[in-house]
Amino acid sequence: MIGMREGVVPDNRLVPDTETPRRPLALAIFLIIAGALGWWAAFALTVDKFILLENPQADLDCNFSLIVQCGENLSSWQGAVFGFPNPLLGLGGFVAPIAVGVALLARARFDRWFWIAFHAGIVGALAFVIWLISQSIYVLGTLCPWCMLVWSVTIPLFWVVTARNLAEGVYGAAAVPAGRFLTSWTIPIVIVCYAVIVFLAQLQLDIITHIAVGAL
Amino acid sequence: MAQQQKLTRDQKRELAREMARAEREKRLKSQARNRILIRVGATVGVIALLAAVGGGIWLATRPAGPGPVNMASDGVVFQGVDGEATVVETRALESGENPIPTDPSDFDDVVRIVTYLDFGCPYCAQFETTNAAQIEELVADGVATLEVHPINLLKNAFLGDRYSARSANAGACVAAYEPSKFLDVSAAFFAQQPAESGNGFTNREIVDLVKGAGVTESRVEGCITGEEFKDWVEAATLRALTGPLPNTKEARVTGTPTILVNGERYVGSLTNPAEFRAFVESFRTDSGTGDDSAEE
Known about the structure:
The structure holds 2 protein chains of 2 kinds. Helix content of chain A is about 70%, strand content about 0%. By secondary structure, chain A is mainly α. Chain A starts with a helix and ends with a helix. Chain B has a 6-stranded mixed sheet with strand order 2-1-4-3-5-6, with helices on both faces.
């Protein structure tokens, strides 16, 4: 999140026409941190999946209560919707933002098609995460800690990369102002996205009552 | 020379650019605070809106919270164990779960005394100050079991300060967290009962009363001041007042105290210990004077 804070004030406003591109430091650092956190969560879920496969009754570290647990999510069909455990997607997918971030740190430049492909991957990830959130809250009735970490990084990844691509003209000059506007609003938008998830979880799972009776 | 001139021109341009940039930065800086304030304001506004809507829905729809431990039947049950009146431990009811009636067959050949009481009700105080000690003795001796249902009957008494509800909650707190003191607390409630026409005790005063009766468990205090079982008290009261009551032919509680012995309602004197004792004795099977006709 700290990396993102700087990312929303586009440096290119101050230096619009320099020949040598400025290194988008904030964006790069954000991509690396977000990717690393997401990868860490996917790794933890993968390990927990192994533990569950060895012993379906295993008491996972991420199981705190009836609501806050990941055993239910890992054992569900939604947890392996493509025929293999979802976290494997994360183990591979979260390498992309890390790689892009590190490359940007090294002043790499990418072609337009690369940014479009990167964005497409992140849009896909967001779509998947939205589906997983809905399944977790409305079908499984759980809040899985590692899964929530994945949600928490995928959402800002989507907004930051979307805003970046728009602002940098990847989708045409007409979209640049919209991109700049979005860039400056990224943090509020991300916070509100988080708040909406908390809101939906409260409506469905009544977290307040669970906290009140110490059952969370 | 040409090179030097060019450099100078470059430098000039650089300088102008630098100044323009500095000016721009200054302007942006002065705008930055407003930009941040607008975004912080918008974020806080949206979150406040979500919190208000979510909180409102929660308040409007929340189910009766989980009940107290040891009161799965809506009442707390005592039986004689080694010459002591000892609580029969049960789990807590989940939110919205129906109570689990006490199974009489768990206590064969023992007289079952069930009381529905309001700690604020003067007639209950009469009955309890008259009979509580001998009931506890009967329970301790293994002659009887006692099941106490504290309910909130006097909703509008005590100048509307909800003393009945709050004292019933306190009873549930003690039953849940320090049940060995429940009978002492009950006795203290009736011995020190405030007048219905005035204010009842505050939650802090209830805490003092309960501590005075020997409660030491720290969770009881927070349970009383936070009214942990507020919703459960309302739900249990509603169940008692609408019926059906388990293990009796009585349809519902119509007033307090409602005292049931083996399902039969005691309608005798509230202030005559011998009369109640005789009523209980009439149900004893071990003494040979039992009359089990009241068994359903």
